[in-house]
Amino acid sequence: MSTERNNKTMPAICNEGCNKQFEVNGFQTARLPGAIEKTYFTCPHCKHEYVAFYTDMEVRELQAKIRRVQTKLQNPRVDQTEALKQVKDIQAQIKAGMDRVRTVVEGGL
Ligand SMILES: [Zn+2]
C-alpha cells in the first residue's frame, strides 16, 4: 500500500475525450485483480480516464528498493557512482515491469 502523495499539479489536455484543458492534481489508485494497482487520473470535464502506469507486487518492491538506494545518495560516505548506477538499473527494471503489467492488463488476460 502506497502512502505517497503527489500534490503537484500539471496541465493536461483531454486529447482522448473532450479536448478541454485541465489541471492534474495528484493521481488516484485503483486495485485490480492479481494485486495489480492502477495509477490514473481523470478529466474533470468528461471523466475520461488516463492511466499513468500499472504496478504489481514485483514493481512495487522495486519502487521500495529504489527509494532505499536514493537515500544512499544523500550519504556522502556511500560510493555515489555505484549508487547512481543502481538507481539507473532499478529504474530500467521498474519501467520494464510497468510495461509488462500494462500488457497483461490491457491485453485482457
Ligand atoms: Zn475530457
Short description, anyone?
With 109 residues, the protein is of the alpha+beta class. The protein is built from two helices and five strands, in the order E-E-E-E-E-H-H. The chain binds zinc ion.
Protein described:
This is Transglycosylase. This protein has 2 helices and 5 strands; from the N terminus they run E-E-E-E-E-H-H. The radius of gyration is 17 Å and the shape is globular. With 109 residues, the protein is of the alpha+beta class. Strands 3-4-5 form a 3-stranded antiparallel β-sheet. The two termini are 24 Å apart. 39% of the residues lie in helices and 27% in strands. The chain has one domain. The structure holds zinc ion. Zinc ion (ZN) is lined by residues 14, 17-18, 20, 43, 45-46, 48.
Task: Kindly provide the radius of gyration, computed on alpha-carbon positions and rounded to a whole number of angstroms.
Answer: 17 Å
Give the biggest beta sheet.
3 strands, antiparallel
Query: What is the average per-residue confidence, as pLDDT, rounded to a whole number?
Result: 91
What portion of the residues fall into strands of 2 or more residues?
Answer: 25-35%
Low-confidence stretches: none
Percent range for helical residues?
25-40%
Shape: globular
Let me know the number of strands: 5
Main sheet: strand order: 3-4-5
The distinct bound ligands, ions and cofactors come out as:
zinc ion
* H/E series: EEEEEHH
Q: What count of structural domains?
A: 1
Structural class: alpha+beta
C-alpha end-to-end distance:
24 Å
What's the helix count?
A: 2
